[in-house]
Write a structure and sequence with these properties.
heterodimer; A: 120 residues; three-stranded antiparallel sheet; 12% strand; B: 398 residues; mainly alpha; elongated
Chain lengths: 120, 398
């Protein structure tokens, strides 16, 4: 069985940033977790996301592509899957997202991947 | 000439152009703003002594660019990063950077209020304090909103480019709407004691002129500028001690130069044969502006233009305006208009415009008691003191 594990962070976007030491400790714990599921052979892939402030939501209704700021999915819309894509800019990501079939009934949220290489 | 004042004026005029070029070169809004700020400090020091250069924009761009390169070098050294330093490109690309800038600022992935704020801040060169005044929000809130917008542009990868042709109609609509909203907020200030915010009207006209200069083949850009000029032309007659509506305005106080320019723009745009909402609204404004009096206005033509506008862009507000025109057409009159208004009453129940329009039609039909109820409802919903005062005077005159 394959499972997608969704991480709902406990920190509010607008809360003051945690201090350097706390971030380092958190990163260390994540590294340990990643190593654990790598060793067990269960790791399929994963990424950290940029915060919801950077999110963009796409919907297609009829002929119209509706692009909005933010992650505002309606409550009846539930997470049904994900694609990880590498696009040249947000305009291309919107174009790609607007072709996912569920965009016509639900919505696709686009979130940039957070590059963690600077934080180690 | 006062050199400090000259620097400020040139800066206000040129900062959008300079900033747009710097953002392309540096690939970052914040770095570009920082560099421009440093160039301004240098200009304030040099220009009073050496005189204003022949091409102030080029001077500012070069000075800012040099400051940015110095800073990047210092940071590269401090962070001990080897040669990761990318220097801003020297070559000028085809087209105007300001067009890239406005399409980036008005990207639909940013919220509408953010689009307006970012456009005023970067392209129009308003300070954060001035943008704050336009929105009537605390300065810290506005500063935070601008910081967040610039971060989203960077982190989410909003491209710094004019959209390709197949996306242009949709994206141009967003750009025109931002300029239209700036003007509207100036002309019908939604809150506060002032009825008209002349500063915002002037900024919107300046931005619309820029769009026409950058996209002379877009009839809707011509239409928008025409519309703003034709409406702005009536501004001197619109405010006195109190708000004066179109039928009661002293038409000799209208600005005939603006009317002539606006009307020419509308005709030029409509000749392209691609009518759109801004062109039609401008055509309506032109019919009003060229009429010698309220009674001699060609109301049938205005009602026809509104019907066409309602077809292109169906909205309750357009229907409401159409109803007003219909009420003055001899063959139709206030009773026919009231039926049109009642058809959109549910949609616009929270708008004082619906109730003041109904009140006026009922008054003209001699249904005084119903008119009074509608005026009172309009007064409850009106946003500015001047509007409330106007509606009160109508109510007491019943």
């Amino acid at each position: 069985m394959q499972y997608l594990l969704l991480i709902y962070g406990g920190r509010e976007d607008n809360a003051p940033a945690a201090d350097e030491a706390a971030i380092k400790e958190m990163m260390r714990e994540y590294d340990a977790f990643t190593a654990m599921i790598n060793e067990s052979g269960e790791m399929q892939g994963g990424n950290a996301l940029q915060d919801t402030d950077t999110a963009t939501t796409v919907r297609v209704r009829g002929d119209e592509t509706l692009v909005t700021d933010g992650p505002f999915a309606e409550t009846k819309e539930v997470l049904g899957g994900y694609y990880l894509v590498d696009c040249k800019d947000l305009d291309r990501a919107i174009e790609v997202a607007s072709r996912i079939p569920d965009v016509r009934n639900g919505s696709i949220e686009i979130r940039p991947i957070l590059d963690l290489s600077d934080r180690r | 000439m006062n050199a400090g004042g000259a620097v400020e004026r040139v800066f206000r005029q040129e900062s959008g152009r300079v900033l747009a070029a710097l953002i392309r070169g540096l690939g970052d809004f914040d770095r570009a703003e920082e560099a421009l700020q440093e160039a301004l400090v240098l200009a304030l020091e040099r220009w009073p002594r050496d005189g204003v250069p022949d091409n102030p924009a080029a001077w500012l761009t070069t000075a800012a660019r040099n400051r940015a390169i110095d800073r990047l070098r210092r940071e590269a050294k401090r962070d001990d990063k080897e040669a990761a330093l990318v220097l801003p490109a020297e070559s000028a690309p085809a087209g105007d950077d300001r067009l890239r800038l406005i399409f980036t600022c008005c990207h639909p992935a940013l919220g509408l209020e953010t689009q307006v704020a970012l456009t005023l801040r970067t392209l129009a060169g308003l300070t954060t304090a001035e943008v704050t005044h336009a929105f009537l929000v605390p300065e810290a809130t506005m500063a935070q909103r601008l910081v967040r917008a610039k971060r989203k542009i960077r982190v989410a990868g909003i491209p710094y480019q004019v959209p390709p042709d197949h996306q242009l109609p949709e994206r141009l609509g967003a750009v025109l709407k931002v300029v239209y909203l700036v003007f509207n907020e100036g002309y019908n200030a939604s809150s506060g004691a002032e009825v008209v915010r002349a500063d915002l009207c002037a900024e919107a006209v300046r931005l619309a002129r820029l769009l026409v200069a950058l996209m002379p083949d877009e009839p809707e850009a011509l239409g928008l500028l025409g519309l703003l000029l034709l409406v702005d032309a009536r501004r001197p007659a619109r405010t006195g001690p109190a708000l004066v509506l179109l039928p009661d305005q002293d038409r000799t106080r209208w600005d005939t130069t603006l009317i002539a320019e606006g009307a020419t723009l509308v005709r030029t745009a409509l000749r392209r044969g691609r009518p759109g909402p801004y062109q039609l609204q401008a055509a309506i404004a032109a019919v009003h502006d060229e009429a010698p009096s309220h009674d001699t206005t060609d109301w049938a033509q205005i009602a026809g233009l509104y019907a066409e506008l309602a077809r292109l862009e169906p909205s309750p507000v357009v229907q409401l305006n159409r109803a007003v025109a219909v009420s003055f057409v001899a063959a139709a009159g206030p009773a026919a208009a009231l039926a049109l208004v009642d058809a959109v009453a549910a949609d616009l129940d929270r708008s004082h415009l619906l109730h003041s329009t109904r009140a006026d039609l009922l008054r003209r039909l001699g249904r005084t008691a119903e008119a009074a109820v509608a005026y009172r409802r309009a007064i409850d919903l009106a946003g500015t003191t001047a509007e409330r005062a106007f509606l009160h005077s109508r109510l007491t005159a019943l």
